Amino acid sequence: MSNARRFFRYDVTLPMHLEPVDRYGYYLGAERKKLFSAKEEEQLREYNAQLSGWLDKGFDASSHAMYVFYVLNHRIDFMWWLLEHLIESNDSRLANEYKFRSREDAKFSPPSSKKSSTIAPLILGLYERIDGYIDELQQVVKTSINGKIFIYLENPQPLFDDKTYVTNLDKLAQSGVLPAKVLRLLVDKLNLQGLVLNRLKEAHREISHSGEWINYRVNLSAGGFSFLSTSPFELFSIMDVFMKIDDEVLVCRGKILSQIESDEQLYPYRIGVEFNLLTVEQEQQITLFEQRKELRDAMQSVALPY
Length: 306
Known about the structure:
Blueprint: E1 10-20, H1 32-35, H2 38-57, H3 64-87, H4 98-106, H5 120-142, H6 169-174, H7 178-203, H8 205-208, E2 214-220, E3 224-229, E4 238-245, E5 248-261, E6 269-276, H9 280-301
Antiparallel strand pairs: 1-2, 1-4, 2-3, 3-6, 4-5, 5-6
Helix pairs in contact: 2-7, 3-5, 3-7, 5-7
Domain PilZ: 211-287
Protein name: PilZ domain-containing protein
Pfam family, one: PilZ
C-alpha cells in the first residue's frame, strides 16, 4: 500500500508559478504568430532582399565599407537564427550548424574607421547593440532548463535609435547616398528583430521573474503537492511547476491528479499535483527544505525558559 503522505507532507508558503505545457512538453505561452506577424515576416524578407542587392552590386568586393556592412548584416542574421529557435522553444545548441555559426560569429571584432568619419559612431553603436543581443540570446540558451524552458532575465529594451549617433541618416538615405541607404536597412532590420525579442521576453515574463510570483500555501513533499485554487484545472494536464525554495528557483514537471471542492469561498478547489521524474538532487532539495521548515516551526512553538 502506498504512503498517502508521500504527496502531501507539510504545509509551506512558497512563491510559485504554474505554466501549462503541450503534450510534447513545450511552453504554450508564445505562439509564433503573436510574436512575429505575417506582415513582419514579409518585411524581413524585403530587408534581406534589398541588402543582398546593395551589398552585391553597390560596392567593390575589396572595399572596407563592403566588409563592415557584411559583418553587421552577418551578425544580425546570426541573431535572428538564435531568435528563431527560441521562438519555437528549441535549443539552438542541438542544431547541426550551431558550433559552426558560433565560431564564425566569434571571429568578428568591432570595425575600425577613421576618427573623422561622421558615421563611425553609428557603425560602432550598431555593432555593440548587435553584440549585446547575441550575448543575451546565447545566455538564455546556456541557462535553459533541459533545453526546453528558457528564462529571460533582462527586461525589454528600447529599440536602437540611430539619431543618437547621426541626425541626418534618413535624409542621406533618401538622397541616394549608398552607405546611408545600407545603414538605414540594417538599423530597420535589427529593430524588427529586437521588437520580436521584446515580445518574447514579455511572453516569458511570468516564468522569468520570480519576484512577481504568487505566494501559495501548499502541502508539499518530494512526491508532489496540493494547493487551494480560485479556479479548476483540467485533470491529468501537464504543467511546469516553478517554485522558489531558499532563494533558488526549482522547476519540476507535474501532472494534475486530483481536484476536490473545498469549503473555502475564496479558494473553492484543492488541486493535487504529482511530480514527474524528479532528479535525486531535486528530491533532496525539497526534502531538506521541508525538514528545515518543520524544525523552525517546532522551535517557534516551544516556549523557551528564561
